[in-house]
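Justification of resources, computational component.

The compute hours requested in this renewal are based largely on the per-chain cost of generating structure records like the one below. Each record pairs the submitted sequence with a full structure-token output. That output is archived, and it is also reused by downstream analysis tasks.
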Amino acid sequence: MASPLARRSLLLHGLALGLLALQLALTDRSQVLFWGAVALVALAGLKLRESRRPPDLRRAALAELITVGVLAVMNPELGPSLLQASTALVVLGALLSQEAGGRTSLRQLLGRSLQLAMAALPLLILLFLLLPRLGPLWSLPGATAGRTGLSDQLDPGAIASLVQDPSPALRVSPLSGAIPPPAQRYWRVLVLDRFDGRRWSSLAAPDLRQPPPPPPPAQGTPWQLWVVEPSPVPQLPWSGEGIPLTPGLRMAEAGELIGPGPGGERRRYTLGRPTGPSAWRTRPPLPQDLLLPRGSNPRLEQLAEQWGRTLPPAARVEAAARFFRSGSFRYTLQPGRLPQWAPLDAFLFESRAGFCEHFAGSFTALMRAAGLPARVVLGYQGGEWIGDAGGTSGYLDVRQRDAHAWSEVWLEDQGWVAVDPTGWVAPDRIAAGVQGGLAGQLEDLRRLGRTLPWLRQLEQGWTRLDLAWTRWVLQFDGRSQNGLMDRWLGRWRQWQGAVLVGGLAVALVPAALLLGRQYQGRRRDDLRRELERCLAQLAKLGLQPRGGEDLEAFCARAAEVHPKLREALQTLSSSYGQLRYAPPETTERRRALASLQHSRQALTRRTSGD
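The structure output for this chain reads:
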């Protein structure tokens, strides 16, 4: 007869399904495996509902554990990984509770689950370190389920709204070298080369169907580790310098970094130390870098055309700098609305109050009207340095409020040169961030999102752990494994497979010992349940053990009260003692267990007949 389902086991299975549903709710639906995971959770729920026997619960647990594995592939970050591990422990506890008949306390279940997990940990570490690493099996380009972030077009006031968001945007950790000083922290993301008289956008979106470049050479040395939060755009932040080391990364002609993975996911990548100027800096401009809708901002065009007729290229940039510095321009989050017609004229010659996109957009239009190829760059500027994080010297924490726009101008003898007109108007914005640029403007400062100090400290502590997880676990790819094996095995590298098999054999020893203890405990629990069934029959006759009375004394006393039960009680006492305290060989054990069961059956018949 099958043992009944333990109520606690059913409750734990329900908790596991709830945790899985929560993780799915926090997962990007555009991922390939998402709906497969949903189907697994649904099947596990249906199997749990129709379960009538312990094997049914085991099948439900199998579906739950497979779902945990699928979620680990989709969400490998530290936070989701901890939630996945907790779910696996709950499922393991549900299995142990069912095997124990529901009589084990929650504390005991947790202890046994942790013991089994610790026994499997050496196996997992060996497989992680020694099993050959595989590259991505698939990619899903074009996903746009990102959170807040930079847009692929620039409207006046767009970034001014974004900087009121204090949420994290990216973190960069130097693996060698140092982070540049605040005034040089420009992290480019998007290049906008199309202007319609009011709005800047990209003339051509990046071709995400383009196959990724071949893996970089193995001798590349990691220089910077980047962790970027989900974003609506496929382009990635970088300084404009460095060699892409992560498979799938590629550099666009305009200096944009593309891939890997959809923008709706958190992305991680490494860059190698640059060996020279990036190729995009010297790539000649295209005709589109001079396009300007004539007549859209006539006063701007008139001023710039005068510069173009009378000044050489570099002097035109200097003329624009003098214009912004001496024109009483004001840096503010509340620039007011610009008219639909000639909006840049209204900004440059009337309101003169704006944010970085106003300055970058109008300066770039001035340069084009003056005959210089120019474009707008969107990205981030600044960031807060957090020291001693995740086994590194520290990391740079860049927030959405650090979003920024600047310009690039083509000069024949220099290539593409970055120019930030915001620095001409509000130099403190570049040196001290948005708050520095808005110093003294109380209304604007109140608009900035703020984080409580204690919450900020907790966030920084979590970020340190997250960066350590990213560096030592998520970034451990084939390149990292090859370097580790070369250091460990050297000229014995061809024996990596043998080392793996031998290590697994050694790691299986503590796991086998622990499982043997678990089995022994389960066997003894079976004996205990058999004894309790016998005592339940005797309790019907009013016979119960006294405090401090052992089984042998209790059986002797019960036999004096009910002589008809003497033989069954003597068998119960001798068989249980033999099995509990001195387990015999297999054949004798079977005989003793059969005697114990016969004793229980005899007690059942006797008590039923009395």
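The chain has 19 helices and 18 strands. The CA atoms of residues 71 and 517 lie 31 Å apart.
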